Amino acid sequence: MTAKIDHDPGLEEVIAARTRLSHVDGLQGILTIGGFRLEELAGHATYEEAVYLLWQDRLPNVTELADLRERLAALRTLPDETLHVLNMAAARHMPGMDALRSATGTLESSGDPQRDAYRLIGVFPTIVAAYARLIEGQEPVAPRADLGHAANYLYMLTGEVPSEARVKGLETYFVTVIDHSLNVSTFAARVIISTQSDMISAITGAVGALKGPLHGGAPAPALDMVFEIGDESRSESYLRAKLGAGERLMGFGHRIYKVRDPRADVLNAAAEAMYKADGDMRLYRLARHVERDALRLLEEYKPGRRLQTNVEFFTALLLHGLGLPTGLFTPTFAVSRVAGWCAHCLEQLRENRIIRPGSAYVGEMDRRWIPIEER
Ligand code: ACO
After folding, report:
1. Angstrom distance (rounded) from CA 317 to CA 325
2. Three-state secondary structure along 167-231?
3. Ligand 1 pocket test: which of 239, 257, 299, 305 has the largest number of ligand atoms within 8 Å of its C-beta?
4. Closest C-alpha to ligand 1, atom 35
């Protein structure tokens, strides 16, 4: 007989950390990053400014921003052993997140969490871009210190200096997803660093957590749906068939946001600007048409569930417009989120208490040992 003990398997009701980094108000649809509403920050800030904001709790002045940019740019080069691991991963056609996890583990901790944080943010884009090329049988493109973080990432992927519109699109994406309160990968990183382990270990664990389809999400299926629909005239019948068969529409619904995810609007605006300047507007218009139909039909088939477009839908559209293959969507998310992970780890270390929740024991008690020949 086991006692029924209350427990909270998803920890939804548990407040496990105090943070000044970001806050999610899912009922009002407000995401605050470093005190700024997302709509205020994204579109204004460069990625480096957002990193500075997370770490210092204020925006940098011109000199401070130049210093940070220079410092990160100087840390972009891959160590030989990291490149070696990426080559082996490519030979085995490992998925991008597995390659990123393995490559992160090759980085040596300096023992100083802040220094490791610079290193991780500097080198993550190089790891992901190098792997994207290696798996296609191409040589990696060496980073360029004169380009900003977002521009250099696109440059390392393609070997070409990207247009301003593309840089702006990626910059907005990077700032939009840089942090999102105590999400699973961030929590995983904080748990690991709370043992006074090192930053490299904490971030390697976070990459592992982000890989899961319940967290890193699946922006690729949202885009596949738009491609399968192919034409506005087929949108409603396609969506009705899916919903009628009890299937879920990818890119809609969220555990916390019960109104529209503010990241969806910000990324939609970024995608629209980018497609207008430098993309296939037909695809953008089709996606918006599919979205409108989907929202209308979700209300019809699932009344009162308050299902709205989530971040994945417009992530897919934006990253596809930037020319990224679907396999790069989640690793590119990590290229941005690594700054949030590091900021949370530094915050955890400042007020550290080892994170060690309890558990409800539901097993037997007071068993007596039975010799093996009597079992
Ligand atoms: N399409 C159709 N119906 C849906 C969808 C959807 N996308 N999402 C939820 N529903 C329905 C459910 O079937 C359920 O209906 P019921 O009450 O008749 O059983 C109801 O809405 C509530 O769904 P839950 O599963 O309880 O919602 P939950 O909060 O657990 O799920 C989730 C959130 C996982 C994101 C869900 O909405 C979903 O599967 N969406 C599609 C996948 C997706 O877009 N994932 C990326 C999420 S964004 C991110 O994680 C960063």
Report:
1. 11
2. HHHHHHHHHHCCCCCCCHHHHHHHHHHCCCCCHHHHHHHHHHHHHCCCCCCCHHHHHHHHHHHCC
3. 305
4. 254
Beta strand pairing call for 36-37 and 30-33: antiparallel
DSSP state of 309: B
Residue nearest ligand 1's atom 20 by CA: 305
pLDDT at position 134 is 98
For residues 131-140, one letter each, b for 16 or more C-beta atoms within 10 angstroms of the residue's C-beta and e for the rest, the string is bbbbbeeeeb
307 lines ligand 1 (CB under 6 A): yes
What mean pLDDT value characterizes the chain?
94
- Whether 153 lines ligand 1, by a CB cut-off of 6 Å, is no
Cα–Cα separations (whole angstroms), residue 136 to 44, 93, 226, 333: 34, 10, 25, 20
Question: What pLDDT does residue 312 have?
Answer: 86
Q: How many CA atoms lie within 13 A of 148 on its CB side?
A: 20
Residue 4's pLDDT is 53
pLDDT digits (tens, 9 = 90+) for 56-67: 999 999 999 999
Known catalytic residues are: 254, 312
**What is the predicted pLDDT for the residue at 128?**
98
Atom 2, ligand 1: residue with shortest CA distance:
248
- Report the predicted TM-score, pTM, of the whole model to 2 decimal places: 0.92
Phi (first) and psi of residue 30, to 5 degrees? -120, 125
Provide the terminal-to-terminal Cα distance of the chain, rounded to the nearest Å.
22
Backbone angles phi, psi at 78, to 5 degrees: -80, 135
Q: For residues 128 and 140, give the distance between their C-alpha atoms in angstroms, rounded to a whole number.
A: 10
8 A C-beta contact, residue 118 and residue 339 = no
Mean pLDDT of 78-106: 98
CA 353, CA 38: separation in Å to the nearest integer?
A: 30
Rounded to the nearest angstrom, the distance between the alpha carbon of 245 and the centre of ligand 1 is 15
